[in-house]
Design goal:
Elements lengths: L10 H8 L11 H7 L4 H8 L3 H8 L6 H10 L7 H5 L12
């Protein structure tokens, strides 16, 4: 059986051609809220049904799935309508309407 040979594209070349930053960090308030509740990363992860590594990545600003955000919001004891207070709006900016 013959192997198929695929053209290898350098990662740098792929990033430049897409025009997007694939690992752009988006600030959020997960760590701030978690610490105000005196909750450890491990405890939040357990309550949310996620790994501590996932919590660490989210707190570091890496993007995540909507379902992951939902689990974190509920595990912090917040309502889903408070999503913008935790993760900001769709542009990555925090919502300042309440301030």
């Amino acid at each position: 059986m013959k192997r198929k040979h695929y053209r290898r594209v350098a990662v740098k070349e792929a990033k430049e051609s897409s025009g997007k930053k694939p690992y752009q960090r988006i600030p959020n308030r997960v760590k701030e809220i978690r610490e105000s509740l005196l909750m450890s990363k491990a405890e939040l992860a357990r309550k949310a049904g996620l790994s501590a590594l996932t919590i660490d990545r989210v707190e570091s600003g890496y993007n995540c799935r909507m379902d992951t955000k939902r689990k974190i919001i509920l595990a912090l004891g917040l309502r889903l309508s408070d999503k913008d207070k935790v993760f900001g709006d769709a542009t990555g900016e925090e919502d300042d309407r309440d301030s």
